[in-house]
Design brief:
Distance between the termini: 58 Å
Strand order of the largest sheet: 1-2
InterPro entries: Myelin_PLP, Myelin_PLP_CS
Shape: rod-shaped
Helix content: over 70%
Radius of gyration: 31 Å
Keywords: Membrane, Transmembrane, Transmembrane helix
Order of helices and strands: HHHHEEHH
GO cellular component, one term: neuronal cell body
Number of strands: 2
Structural class: mainly alpha
Largest sheet: 2 strands, antiparallel
Number of helices: 6
Family: Belongs to the myelin proteolipid protein family.
Protein name: Neuronal membrane glycoprotein M6-a
């Protein structure tokens, strides 16, 4: 039983396992914290900036936030499945390398699957880099807002204003500006909602960065497995050719021995 456990533990692709754990952690942080941060943003815009949803099918900032939430749902489901697929691929590749001289045979289809995963993981890595860059935008916006709140308490009599038009949240024709002298600004700075939303976006940014690292880790693992499988295929072909030549030599030797025996008799 102990030997079986050691054999099972030896077949676990630990590199793929670490990358999968990192991917799940990053996606969970990004999706969970990003969803809650978007909900907090909606509350801040409606409560303190006195914004309302546009009537009809007009696309406004609230519609875009709802779209981002649905995208988050899709990302969570897609990468949950993709992490499982990469783990399965890691198990099969590890088994192919370890059982090279056994009954397991490395097929061309398996090599094509590994190459496909490498290409797909590279595309996902670029996508997560874009997501990380995009997630840094709300972090920058909230950092500006948080800095204005801090400067208001430090500088007495200062009058700072924040206009949503400079961030592209509203159109140029709409004036959604909030200044430090207004009651809404003071209430917003004193509330925990602003601080919580700001830190949720920071954690979501960290989760996106962790997903990028996981994709890079997967690329290294898949590339190494591809190289090992390719060398294993060559070794397998060499062993097959060697075995065939030995069998031919054995048949030739047997034939000559029979001919000599017949000639002698």
């Amino acid at each position: 039983c102990f030997e079986c456990c050691i054999k099972c533990l030896g077949g676990i692709p630990y590199a793929s396992l670490i990358a999968t754990i990192l991917l799940y952690a990053g996606v969970a942080l990004f999706c969970g914290c990003g969803h809650e941060a978007l909900s907090g943003t909606v509350n801040i815009l409606q409560t303190y900036f006195e914004m309302a949803r546009a009537a009809g099918d007009t696309i406004d900032v609230f519609t875009m936030i709802d779209i981002f939430k649905y995208v988050i749902y899709g990302v969570a489901a897609a990468f949950f499945v993709y992490g499982i697929l990469l783990m399965v691929e890691g198990f099969f590749t590890t088994g192919a390398i370890k059982d090279l001289y056994g009954d397991f045979k490395i097929t061309t289809c398996g090599r094509c699957v590994s190459a496909w995963f490498i290409m797909l993981t590279y595309i996902f890595m670029l996508a997560w880099l874009g997501v990380t860059a995009f997630t840094s935008l709300p972090v920058y916006m909230y950092f500006n807002l948080w800095t204005i709140c801090k400067n208001t308490t430090l500088v007495e009599g200062a009058n700072f204003c924040l206009d949503l038009r400079q961030f592209g949240i509203v159109t140029i024709g709409e004036e959604k500006k909030i200044c430090t002298a207004s009651e809404n600004f003071l209430r917003m700075c004193e509330s925990t909602e602003l601080n919580m939303t700001f830190h949720l976006f920071i954690v979501a940014l960290a989760g996106a960065g962790a997903a990028v690292i996981a994709m890079v880790h997967y690329l290294m693992v898949l590339s190494a497995n591809w190289a090992y499988v390719k060398d294993a295929c060559r070794m397998q072909k060499y062993e097959d050719i060697k075995s065939k030549e030995e069998q031919e030599l054995h048949d030739i030797h047997s034939t000559r021995s029979k001919e000599r025996l017949n000639a002698y008799t």
